[in-house]
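User: Predict the full complex structure for these chains.
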Amino acid sequence: MSQTAASVHFPNRMDKLIHQFIDTIRAATEDRRRLRIRGGGSKAFYGNPATGEDFDVTGYHGIIDYEPTELVITARAGTPLTEIESTMRAKGQMLGFEPPHFGGGATLGGCIAAGLSGPRRAYTGAARDFVLGLRLLDGRGTDLRFGGQVMKNVAGYDVSRLVTGSLGTLGVILEVSLKALPLPQAELTLACEQQRGEAITLMNAWAGQPLPLSATCHVEKRLYLRLSGAESAVKAAAKKIGGEPVPNAAEFWNGVRDHRDLFFSGDGPVWRLSVASTAAEIDLPGHQMLEWGGALRWLKSDADADSVRKAARKAGGHATLFRRGNRTTGAFHPLPEVLMRIHRNVKQAMDPVGILNPGRMYPNL
Amino acid sequence: MPIDFERQRAVCSALRAFMPEHNVLFDREDVTPYECDGLSAYRQVPMVVALPENEAQVCEILETCHAMRVPVVARGAGTGLSGGALPLGNGVLLSLAKLKNILAIDTQARIARVQPGVRNLAISEAAAPHGLYYAPDPSSQIACSIGGNVAENSGGVHCLKYGLTVHNILKLRVATIEGEIVELGGGGLDAAGYDLMALMTGSEGLLGVVTEITVKLLPRPECAQVVLAAFDDVGAAGQAVANVIAAGIIPAGMEMMDQAATLAVEPFVNAGYPTDAAGILLCESDGTREEVADEIARIEKIMRDSGAHLVRVSQDEAERLKFWAGRKAAFPAVGRLSPDYYCMDGTIPRRRLAEVLRGIAAMEKNYNLRCANVFHAGDGNLHPLILYDANDPGQLQRAELFGAEILKLCIDVGGTITGEHGVGIEKIDSMCVQFGAAELETFHALKRAFDEHELLNPGKAVPTLHRCAEFGRMHVHSGKEKFPELPRF
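Assistant: Here is the predicted structure of the two-chain assembly.
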């Protein structure tokens, strides 16, 4: 069992920190003061602006348990994503959802609270698919543990997956256990010139065949495809599909993942449309990037929020105002009334006074 | 619980206002077939059985029951092993059996839109002509319904590589207890707001009634091959599993059987298992031809290096199926050895396997009962099968205590009381051992977020704190299987 210096040398310090967190939450509950939970701050741009006092949880960090043969890693919320990824890489493993970092300071807690996934998402799964269990403090400061460190666990409601992507509105994540995946033996990225409509058809057709796909992207009239797996399988698939090998492919995919790609530059709003993979091209002015086999469409456009949301709904999904733009109608797609009522009830169950990141996801949530 | 006939009449006439008479049952002989699910040790005749034919009727039934404050237990095919669909004597048993249409298969998008009563295997059968299939394959897949799979978050032999139900669905239409429809998930890979689809999956019918499911379909792998390896020591077999994972391989299936299990199986199926081995492993690889050839060669070498005294690779599809036939027949084969058996469903960190099997062996002596172990070794899900004779009341009680002690051991080594069968009514007291009061209270609060008056499947899955206080110590009830014809693995 490997442990980091933090947990070996300072277990008491970490326990003390949890007591401090609990005191902070309890005091805030009593005074009805709002808390704005903060990790590395790399995703501060995401969602609606939260109000309240900054509640920094980065001090609670370090890998607690990592047993590669169990395919499970457990770490504290403040652990930098880079530390987790490099520790896993040293053992030939990775986080299967290829989480975006969006800057240097990204932490595990922020990663799970945001619930965002990278290029591999359509082929290996989302952040929530890899969450096996977590420990969190709810809005009363109660220390809770859900799920566990095993692959299969159906005891009790799946609170760990509920909390994933809830933007800190349901609790302060303390520790997370994630399923690990082996690094692929071989990886190859191919590219070819392709119109957008044709790219959508191709990406869906490929996904219907037994090919070792691990990422797809269409941008600036070029279609990129990443193959990952056994060397022989990658070679055979490459022969079947064709296209030119892309040099420095890791750089390209990290650019897509972290929005360092040129596509994301500029001053205009960036929308994220999560839609049916086979949905036709989004008929709005501006620039588009496709990912996830067609199921994710990035849109750089000055189109008004209503038009974008209507287009996303028509394509079977929802739209998020991801970067910049006017947030007066909120960053996230409005929910139907019944669903919103359930959301408020769930929030009430976990954070009755409403002190944790209120408004970050939806007003009054 | 005795039936309150006046209440029964009132509920029936309220339901018959919008449903045909023959779909609202209350005669003893009509409702008795619904008195239990796959856990037949628990039986209760429901007050009323409602058989809606469409989503609108499901909503009306729920709205009616909500207004009348009648509890509702939803039921799919009734194959569950934890008593999740055990009816209530003062409640309506809501059978989704008539909602059994595959509404659409979109081969381009690789999805199927189905009603909850559709059988798991029927989806793969319908998708097969397009080279697609639905991945989760619980052992009861020829009979179990997809709605029940969602309620239980069912797994299967291939879930280490392909995931559980929650990983293979995109969208749910769910009727709330008020009779309103909400859509969870969506046409894309995620949805706005909280991930309520994930919360709904595995919630055992306590949060809502699923009326429609959109599942993902995967391309059928080009080929599959399986390695059979035999070990003199189960610890070595466990280490071999760890070595496969450490080599960066995620097998499509990785199953272990101990000697007690192979001895039961071999005369029954002639699968070709070496019965002198302390334990055997079946390790399957699937994918493209190139991938499988590579992976099988590596697995074979790892098995030998890990001390397997016999390693065989399936040479053709017939042999692959033969190797699997033994594993799939393990439950009925064990059933031939003993009048009754009690199947446990704990999950453990794999590295603790040898220790847990040693613990179980010691318990066999203490309780003077035999136990055969089959193990989804890849994901740590252990199914000890405790053999007993229900006609001897002393044995039944010993089997119960034996099972409870196994579950406690699973929790002690960092595992869980149920990997795939669900809590239902069967393991409700063991929930008191696995979770603290604060977590249980959170579960109850979440239930009330969906179901204020606690009318949906009350009394299942999550024990009240009062029940835990009264329970005081581990006690797990015995379950005898219905559906002996279904394979169970």
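Residues 473-482 of chain B have pLDDT under 50 and may be disordered.
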